[in-house]
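Kindly draft a polypeptide, keeping tokens residue-aligned:

***
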Amino acid sequence: MSDRETRCNAGGQFMDRGRMNQNGVVQPLLTDLYQITMAYAYWKSGKTDDHSVFDLFFRSNPFHGEFTIFAGLDECLRFLESFHYSESDIEYLRRTLPEGTENEFFDYLGDLTAKDVTLHAIDEGTVAFPRVPIIKVEGPLIIAQLLETTLLTLVNYASLMATNAARYRMVAGKHVNLLEFGLRRAQGPDGGLSASKYSYTGGFDGTSNVLAGKLFNIPVKGTHAHAYITSFSGIEELKARLLKHKLTGVTGDLLELAIKYRQKLSTVLNVSMEESSEGELAAMVSYAIAFPDGFMALVDTYDVKRSGLLNFCAVALALNDLGYQAVGIRIDSGDLAYLSCLARETFERVAERFKVQWFNKLTIVASNDINEETILSLNEQGHKIDCFGIGTHLVTCQRQPALGCVYKLVEINGQPRIKLSQDVEKVTMPGHKNAYRLYSSDGHALIDLLQKVSETPPEVGQKVLCRHPFQESKRAYVIPSRVEPLYKIYWQNGKITQKLPTLELVREKVQKSLKTLRNDHKRTLNPTPYKVSVSDNLYNFIHDLWLQNAPIGELS
């Protein structure tokens, strides 16, 4: 049994690799069959020494936006580190490939690693744009081809998820907390873990996913479900009602204190005690005894105004008498703008009436199938929500379930390769290229420029002709105030060549990179497209090669 199989069997799906955890499912057989059949055909054709260059890129930004966050690079590099077909992999392939596949090919696969591959990439967490390769893979044709599907699956969802999270962060604003609550709605356990990881990358503050917290060191947050409230029918069911004072250690009766305050509050808040639920009160007292320093209660099980807020405030004031401060409430249904304003007004009245100033700062969390449009609408209505718990729409990326990254051969043995199509968007840009981001004097990114690797890089203060790759009349001179080369070599000679950032640093990188974009590129409605261009040299190269490869029609 190989080391990889041992780690998978002993450690479960995710293997502890020190800095971050590597998914044990990510292995060479996590690929499409045609990658392996092509590898055999390449091998039979004597193309084992052919040197190739592949570009991994996407054709359009997701969610009707004009930017994408690149994520998943760390997982790609860990995959290259561990790339090796195990004995059981080879045995499976012997049974799966057609009869007549030569045994020597399986010996070849058994010795194959990624040591001869060079991987160039932009930094993880960087804003990326259509047609600019986010990863370039150089190396022997067979191994570079075999990497395709796995690299795509590692980058596609990660980048989509990070972008979705970044958009939520922008519409919510920097002063509102965002929590990912989507594990139960995600596409399986792998989807749930990836969603937690990359939503944090994109700007969320925490997750309800406990395993993601352990694996990726993401803050975990949570309250309780409606089931906890409805599991109590009345105060007579409380088996524990006593709580020691936080400072003095003197035991107090939390239920008795809560009932006393509930009577006072019914007058202050003009709410009838008869309309409120005693079962809800009992549940809140029980939960407060379990978590006196972290008491946050769900208040919409029965009625927020007539029951939930009354019972919460009563228990919170009782906790205050025993030296504790409640954290806040969660609202999971109803008119979130109205109810959050009602809750804030209630807390302010209680703070003033009972001289408990921290009541003014109680946290209001809202959940309930929230999406980007919901937050924008709540902003317009003037809500008082401090934190959003977002699940389904975030983790499933319902507005666009796939990013659509592709992996295209652009050079073989030093010769450029181009894929033509009647759909211009699907025509590839051939050859080994470099990419640069050109900045204006105010610090904002102006344009991304692709060049042939043989060209001299653009220089600060020097005029550069930037052309649309396919529309001849679209061109402009740019005089950059700063030039940023986008690619670094991350993998070469069988090892990672850059110090990889922690998840926390990638998260910071996302926000820094977004700040380089003008606001009109980031706005939700009709954002301005960001320009991606090619050099004059590359433009002519593309179109000459296009003419050379395009068949000439004949009319008769």
